[in-house]
Amino acid sequence: MPTSTIDWSKAVKPLIKKYKNEPHPLEAGNLYEMVVMVVLSARSNDKLINSIAPAFFNVYPNMSSLAKATADDLMPLLAKVINSANKAKWLVEIATRVKGDKNIPLEIDKMVELPGIGRKSANVIKRFAGAPYEGVIVDLHVVRVSQRLGIATSDDPVKIEKQIMNVLPREEWEAGMSMSFLGRDICRPKPLCEECLMNKVCAYYNGQKVKVG
């Protein structure tokens, strides 16, 4: 089936149904923790961030306590994290600007003004908070899955987000995180296509030429 003929709004509904209540792999207990963990997780894996988070939050349990720290204060707690020096600076700057947990912004345009937070991170934070979607989560799993499905054709996450937003109504934008879960569970670099609930509409599975970044 050519991807151009697929009603993606209808096609993604089973995928969203499967994963919509699945919590993000970052095991944050509140919005402050999710902001910190999302910043730390860039180019690192979620398992590592989950492992170092309890010690970090024991020392810095909220934005106000973090705002009193220096980047050097944070470094012993972030030793295993990739790009830890910059991430420590970003976290302190975020806390200095935001000051308190109640002031954490949930609008994308305000979140991306904070260091270490791009559109993907902002969309993850909004999903965690249960805030209305302003965009689609596009991580490395979504890049792979969206290309294989044929719902997106770009290598650029920003362009992929726009492509998905253009073919899905806002109420289906949870599809981004759902594709991320599918990429972790089934649509891996070596995919388990026979087990995939999306294989009937998948360009890759149905023998069409697709770009896979």
UniProtKB/TrEMBL annotation:
Keywords, alphabetical: 4Fe-4S, DNA damage, Endonuclease, Glycosidase, Hydrolase, Iron, Iron-sulfur, Metal-binding, Nuclease
Cofactor(s) listed: [4Fe-4S] cluster
Pfam families linked: HhH-GPD
Residue ranges of domain HhH-GPD in the record: 40-185
UniProt key word Hydrolase: yes
UniProt GO molecular function: endonuclease activity
The UniProt record lists the keyword Iron-sulfur: yes
Annotated protein name in UniProt: Endonuclease III
Lineage: Bacteria, Pseudomonadati, Bacteroidota, Chitinophagia, Chitinophagales
